[in-house]
């Protein structure tokens, strides 16, 4: 039996809902229908909003260019060519990585420890569409990743912040409306959880056999032979940074990964920045479908400090929002940073999945 | 109360085996029913009756009956509220509804993963503890299901969504692309990655020798 047949059989005895469940849901639908007229798109207003945000974004970029006095914000090499300003920074990072001291690689029975702080902005829409609020949820995760693919994650979810006082009031009203069911509908804010993974459950990439020749490495990444993913230069940037971040790459390999990125069209220089932990770095980015993936690099160690997802355009959000309220980016404003992952501790080798680095 | 909203509220609930009033289940496509529901909200019940059972069962398999009861009802309430945004060129509302259900499920992803890991550890499925397979299937299920649970828990969220829409919702690649609102190439990548990862994890846990890896039917 192959994996798809096994998956098809997994929980296949789950039944269709009973008449009572169907009737209750239909009643809820009728109640929702009684109070909710059909929504009509308002294209004029949305187009106006987009123009306004485009102007603001253009102004913000112009201001950034003046403040940081970068040689280039926009690609100078033309379509299909690497951005010279981004390439220069990546060459520098490759040099730094190449000359960094080799760190001890984890051996059998050892773990790589990482601590990451995530901040994610979400939209919640209740079933009857009556309650709709945007909240930002902080999350800290400690990860112990063994070379055998085992590991342990300790996750602590912080308290949310709401986009506006109205969002918070809507959240409170929603919780109040749930009455006795409140426990189920409160989120796991303020709680910690521990997840343990058996050998093979997690991906530990052994990069020791990867080529450090830039051309060979570039072909392997572009052909998606090391890490799978969609086609496109923007994704090559993401995959290369994945390898730097997730794997325990040695100095020569990390230098080669930076050189691969320096040859990749579409990577842009965002400029000097400060991460959520207050550390200075330099940000590079790739953009796809109105979403910019920014990566902040430490200019002294060439390690990754932070990753961000920034919504540049609401065009994609309009398309996604066909799915109803909680579309992927349907609630985002142009220019809004929806996701930030800040790597507080990275790559320390420890001897057990409970040991903290010294 | 007169008017379309009143007619939605007062229509009696047919069972899932009935055609509904006027035989609409046989005569109206999803797209036609949704378009008609802009003026006559009661027409939306055609979409509900056609898809509620499948959407509920999909959510039940992923997150358990209790959450499925709530999320399936929410799926149709959200769909109804946003029906003016439905693209009538799609004809079949299934992918659109699975997309909404998936978005609602997103808030409960950590719950889903914890349930899968609990199944992997204990061999008891928190999602369907009372659903006992036939006797001749028990041995096989007992041997492989916890491994599958662990494998699903280890997948990236986006990959798991694509894989389960393919395996459990029987959507085609194109329909999954519609449901997830991503290009079809991304669907192929996610499915390939998810299937390879599941294969690796099942194999690492001792899949029986001689098991094949080709999908039944390949790409839909």
In short:
The complex is a heterodimer of chains A (358) and B (220). With 358 residues, chain A is of the alpha+beta class. Chain A has helices spanning 3-9, 19-35, 43-68, 84-98, 165-178, 182-185, 214-222, 233-246, 251-262, 315-320; strands at 111-125, 132-146, 151-157, 161-162, 192-197, 268-274, 280-288, 291-297, 304-311, 337-350.
Distance between the termini of chain A: 47 Å
Mean pLDDT of chain B: 77
> Which regions of chain B are unreliable across 5 or more consecutive residues at pLDDT < 50?
1-22, 205-217
- Taken in chain order, the helices and strands of chain B follow as HHHHHHHHHHH
The count of helical stretches of chain A stands at 10
Estimated helix fraction of chain B: 55-70%
* Strand tally of chain A: 10
How would you describe the shape of chain A? Answer: globular
Helix content of chain A: 25-40%
The parts of chain A where pLDDT drops under 50 for at least 5 residues are: 34-79, 317-327
Helix- and strand-based class of chain A?
A: alpha+beta
Radius of gyration of chain B: 19 Å
- Would you tell me the structural class of the helices and strands of chain B? mainly alpha
Assigned CATH architecture of the domain at 19-107 in chain B? Orthogonal Bundle
Q: Major sheet of chain A, described briefly?
A: 10 strands, antiparallel
Q: Strand-residue fraction of chain B? A: under 5%
Describe this structure in words.
Chain A has helices at about 5-10, 20-35, 45-70, 85-100, 165-180, 180-185, 215-220, 235-245, 250-260, 315-320; strands at about 110-125, 130-145, 150-155, 160, 190-195, 270-275, 280-290, 290-295, 305-310, 335-350. Chain A contains ten helices and ten strands. The radius of gyration of chain A is 24 Å and the shape is globular. Chain A has about 350 residues and is α+β, with helices and mostly antiparallel strands. The relative contact order of chain A is 0.15. In chain A, strands 1, 2, 3, 4, 5, 6, 7, 8, 9 and 10 form a ten-stranded antiparallel sheet that branches. Chain B has a domain at about 20-105: Rna Polymerase Sigma Factor, Chain: A (Orthogonal Bundle). The radius of gyration of chain B is 19 Å and the shape is globular. The termini of chain B are far apart. Chains A and B meet through α1, α2, β1 and β5 of A and α1, α4, α5, α6 and α7 of B.
């Amino acid at each position: 039996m192959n994996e798809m047949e096994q998956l098809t059989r997994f929980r296949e005895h789950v039944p269709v809902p009973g008449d009572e469940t169907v009737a209750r849901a239909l009643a809820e639908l009728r109640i929702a229908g009684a109070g909710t007229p059909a929504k009509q798109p308002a294209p004029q207003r949305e187009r106006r909003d987009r123009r306004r945000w485009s102007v603001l974004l253009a102004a913000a970029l112009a201001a950034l260019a003046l403040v940081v006095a970068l040689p280039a914000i926009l690609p100078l090499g033309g379509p299909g060519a690497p951005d010279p300003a981004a390439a220069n920074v990546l060459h520098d990072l490759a040099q730094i990585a190449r000359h960094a001291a080799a760190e001890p690689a984890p051996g059998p029975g050892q773990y790589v420890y990482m601590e990451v702080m995530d901040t994610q902005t979400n939209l919640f829409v209740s079933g009857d569409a009556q309650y709709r609020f945007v909240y930002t949820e902080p999350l800290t995760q400690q990860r112990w990743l063994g070379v055998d693919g085992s590991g342990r994650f300790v996750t602590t979810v912080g308290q949310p912040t709401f986009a506006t006082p109205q969002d918070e009031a809507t959240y409170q009203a929603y919780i109040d409306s749930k009455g006795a069911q409140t426990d189920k509908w409160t989120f796991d804010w303020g709680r910690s959880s521990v997840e343990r993974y058996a050998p093979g459950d997690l991906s530990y990439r052994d990069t020791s056999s990867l080529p450090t020749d830039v051309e060979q490495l570039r072909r392997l990444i572009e052909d998606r032979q090391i890490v799978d993913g969609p086609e496109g230069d923007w994704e090559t940037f993401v995959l290369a940074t994945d390898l730097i971040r997730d794997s325990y790459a040695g100095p020569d390999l990390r230098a080669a990964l930076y050189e691969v990125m320096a040859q990749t069209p579409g990577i842009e220089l965002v400029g000097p920045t400060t991460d959520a932990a207050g550390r200075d770095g330099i940000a590079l980015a790739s953009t796809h479908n109105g979403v910019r993936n920014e990566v902040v690099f430490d200019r002294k160690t060439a390690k990754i400090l932070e990753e961000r997802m920034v919504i540049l355009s609401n065009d994609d959000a309009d398309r996604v929002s066909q799915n109803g309220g909680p579309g992927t980016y349907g609630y985002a404003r142009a220019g809004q940073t929806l996701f930030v992952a800040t790597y507080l501790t990275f790559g320390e080798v420890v001897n057990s999945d409970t040991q903290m680095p010294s | 109360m007169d008017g379309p909203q009143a007619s939605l509220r007062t229509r009696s609930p047919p069972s899932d085996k009935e055609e509904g009033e006027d035989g609409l289940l046989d005569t109206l496509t999803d797209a036609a029913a949704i378009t008609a529901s802009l003026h006559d909200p009661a027409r939306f019940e055609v979409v509900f009756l056609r898809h509620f059972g499948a959407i509920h069962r999909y959510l039940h398999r992923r997150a358990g009956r209790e959450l499925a009861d709530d999320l399936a009802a929410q799926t149709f309430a959200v769909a109804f509220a946003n029906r003016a945004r439905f693209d009538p060129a799609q004809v079949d509302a299934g992918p659109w509804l699975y997309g909404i259900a998936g978005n609602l499920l997103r808030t409960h992803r950590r719950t889903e993963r914890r349930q899968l890991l609990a199944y992997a550890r204990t061999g008891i499925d928190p999602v369907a503890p009372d659903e006992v397979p036939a006797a001749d299937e028990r041995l096989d299920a007992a041997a492989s299901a916890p491994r599958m649970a662990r494998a699903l828990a280890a997948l990236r969220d986006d990959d798991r969504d694509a894989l389960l829409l393919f395996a459990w919702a029987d959507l085609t690649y194109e329909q999954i692309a519609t449901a997830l609102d991503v290009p079809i190439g991304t669907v192929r990548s996610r499915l390939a990655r998810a299937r390879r990862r599941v294969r690796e994890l099942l194999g690492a846990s001792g899949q029986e020798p001689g098991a094949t890896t080709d999908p039944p039917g390949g790409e839909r």
